[in-house]
Task: structure prediction
Amino acid sequence: MRKYYEELKKIEDFTSFDRTQLLDYIHRQKSEATAICNIGPDFWVELDYIIALMKSSLTDINDVKKEFFIRSVIPLMQKKINSIKSCWKILPENEFFYLRKDLKTFDDIFSHASNIANKNLNYFMPFPLFLNAIDSMTVLYPLLEKSCNTRTIVRYNYDILLTRYLVGDFSAQLVEIIDYLIWVQAVFHIAGSADQQEFRNQIIARLSAFINTGSDFKNGTEYSAKSFVLELHEVLTDINIKSKIQELLSSILGTDISVVECLRKITSIFMDPDISGQANVVRDLIIASDLASSVTKHIKESNNGALYEDIALSKALKSYFMQVSRYMFDVQIDMEVCRIFEIMFYLEKTLPSFIMHDDIIPLLENSIEKLNTQKERLTENLNGALDPEAAELFKAKMKQVYAGKI
Result:
């Protein structure tokens, strides 16, 4: 038995690394599995929270934690087990080996634990083995608010997606607060009262820390009158935003407001409430389709000069499309848009020779067809609310913003 546990320890040592190093891989696996298995992204967030509860209850085990695992955690596992089994059967092993392995581990823990519990043999529960099994997980190792791509969780919510994008140029600290609120909103309904109170305490602490963060003034030999004007604008913006966040914090301290209301109050700071998200979705479909059409035309004409302009436009648009637009589309259109920008990235890397593969034009033409079909379907529901010049104006604006960042 001792040798057996020594071998388990070796496995644990081998797999005990920082899973945040794998975030891109983990998020992509979950995103693709969401599309293939036709489940909502909240599924992965809730599952991660349940596994985190499992790990917490099995760490430094005592009688209270044993009772919590049996009475509280196992019923939560029960609610996920059918979806777990379904995903495990659907996902191809060659593409999702580690995710399938972790799903099977979850199924094995639940089956074993529930079987023992149902027979009232709780004293036979192998808690250390369960903990080692969780620690061996890769894709499903509990990461709480980092468990899933935040933008995937709020897919189709234009207000939050755009706010998060705009805040990204202002404060990484505020982006983290928005991400935390999004995660709390996703798991709040399955959390116990103690965790719900901890969520509230964390929100208060993070908002307070943001408000109390001082402005970072620049200094150097190249500091000019222009630098002063720009910095003054940033400071005034900072003061205004922190004043609004202070109002939100006062509301939280004064009464129990929901996480949804917290997010609404933050978006109202950066967003015009009259902005039509659906109209902008159609606008973005038009832009993506026009870009792909322009590239296709210029490749066929061997017009390298025009291709330079297409690449410059794609670089100006990429950040917005990858952080906002793609998450307003369904998963299939999302993949087409990502493919277009991947092709643009490839073309940029082949400058100045523009090495072309035979499949580039068919891929672009296929994407154009799908984007136009989606655009026509969505346009029917707009009732003429789309500005015919919106696409060109937006492209011009994004070029201007991108030029200012270079």
